[in-house]
Prior knowledge:
By secondary structure, this protein is of the alpha/beta class. The chain contains eight helices and nine strands.
Amino acid sequence: MSAEPLIAxxxxxxxxxxxxxxxxAVVVTVPSGFARLWELGVKDSKQLSPQKRQKLSQQIQRxxxxxxxxxxxKEIDRLNIFHASLLAMSRAIGKLPLSPSLCWVDGKHIIKDxxxxxxxxxxxxxxxxxxxxxSIVAKVWRDDLITRWHRRYPDYGLSRHKGYGxxxxxxxxxxxxxxxxxxxxxxxxxxxxxxxxxxICPRVIEIS
Length: 208
């Protein structure tokens, strides 16, 4: 009997945030491993509490092959968030120590120039346990990263909103300016115009 094919699921998080990188994770298993993911309670990361996500992320990384990839804020601003998200997913897949037979990609777009067969799965984190597992791993990794930045920049409330455009975050940007980890291509982070001379005068806090 032939061995089961390896199936990869890839998803990204942080696409709509104003701060920080867009992060992707890929999880690989054989089809018979789907039952194990359902058994663990894997589902769309947005439907899970932070505590449950943290526990599941540890279990997934212990029991399955997982890798992380990301695109930086500068890459987001240069490429746009759509292409940066695909880049993050491609980088995660590129770190795999094995070659899956098929990659399921969350969303309606496939990843350009990927060397393995792939299939776009709309609402994949709700349809496929391996994509849902990837969404959990990516979410936990990114949230941990943004929480560490919160300790350096507590005035932005990053530990609460993880870089998304909440009222608290928008008010902090208005009061404090932006950091070098804010996405300047996103309108709430764009520098203000000096009305009298029409020149851009951003207030930027550098992250060393």
